[in-house]
Structures are given as structure tokens and as C-alpha cells.
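Write out this protein's structure.
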Amino acid sequence: MTTSNANRRSDSTRDEPGRNRRRTDEERVDTIFRVLSDARRRRVIRLLRAREGAVAVSALAEALAAREPGDPEPERLVVSLQHVHLPKLEGAGVVDYTSDRSQVRYRDVALVDRLLEQL
């Protein structure tokens, strides 16, 4: 049995002014929620927000170790930050990561700030 898509509304947003922007905004919000769903990333953002300018990843890992449950080793946190958390934060536009990946800086994202205030 086949179904006709003739009466279905196309998912294309080319012909509808303003619709591309809304979809992009919705996707951005979804991305931010995914990033903030992880407790370690929320702690990272809070630490970066409290500091001015770029922070060395190793210094971030040491500060994070003091706040994490179970006293994780800073060396392990550096690996976790570099390979998992910081790339996700950078991909979401929340942080800037230096070209050599040794320093990170929070980008002052208003939506992230508002959501973290609620948590």
C-alpha cells in the first residue's frame, strides 16, 4: 500500500520567510540543552564564567578535580576535557578553544547564562 504525500506540507522552509531562522533557533536551543545535560560540562562552564580570559586546560582540570565527586585525577580530567567535553562545548558555540588546544575561554552565551541560573 502506498500513501500520497501530495497533501502533506513539505518540510522545506525555503518558501516561508522567517521559518529558516526559527528552525535554526530551535536547533540552537536543542544543542544548548544537550550540552548542559552533562553535570561535568555545567561545572566547566561555571568555572570558566568565573574567570577572565582564557584558561589553561590543565588549570581547568585541577579546579574541576576539586569540585568533582570522588576526587578524580587532574590528568584523567585533562583527557576527558580534551577528547569529550571541550569539543562538544566548542561545537555548540559555548567556548573558544585555542588552535593548539591548550587553552579555553567561555564565550558569554546569554542563553547558557540564563539556564544555568535556573539550575
